Amino acid sequence: MALLEEDRVRRLLRPLLRTRTVLEPVASRPAERELTGTRFGGLPAMEDGESWPVCDGCADDLRFVAQVNNERDGLHDRLPIAFFTFFYCWNCHPWGRSGERGGWLVRSYTSLTDPHVADAGDGPAFEERHALPLPGKSLPDGCGMSLHCPELWDLVPGDSGGRDAWANWRVVDSASLDLTHERVRAPHLRNAGVAIGGYPYWANGGDQTPFCPDCPDPMELLLQIRPTELTDASWGDVGTLYLFMCREHTQRTGLRIQCT
Ligand SMILES: [Zn+2]
Ligand SMILES: [Zn+2]
Question: How much is the pLDDT for 99?
Fold first, then answer.
């Protein structure tokens, strides 16, 4: 099998380019407490009339993981919501279940009319940490090509593991780095880090992008949490958590977790 030409690979990849925002941990806190600032841990902002969410599996309080001011900190072609909060239940460990709902919650808002920060003691909290948003570009990682670029997946070919395939994946990696200028140069770390938008870094196993039940489209990455100093929350043994949302039907969200 002939080695793929990098020009040809670049032509296949260019239409797939997405932007993303990497959330880089920072030690400093904002000077003033920001009601709807992006943060991990601490207390969430809620809309007037909302209360601390309860797990629909075990009826315990959900734990607040993170909130994102998408409108301000989403420096990419963001999903059409202004703000979201994310809660999770460590009693129920919802990943791996067949159902899309249960044991976790994304509350998303196109605008907030009268938000307030939840009271301390309303629910269990992680230590509050902050992030700096940095813009970047993103292409699917290796296994993501099976969904997003089947033509390339077939050309490589896919996950055959043959020597030719490895050589072809190196061509793909080189072309990808050339197009995205990712700061993390190691190709096997494509889409690393904590990020909103772009494509996921599938930590272990194949592409598990959920599809929207209301349309034929795959959902888009809303938030990816790789193991990070941004949060004490963790999922299994070195787990990466992925939240997805349909761009058209923003009430449709999906959760995936992969452990390495
Ligand atoms: Zn639960
Ligand atoms: Zn949809």
Answer: 54
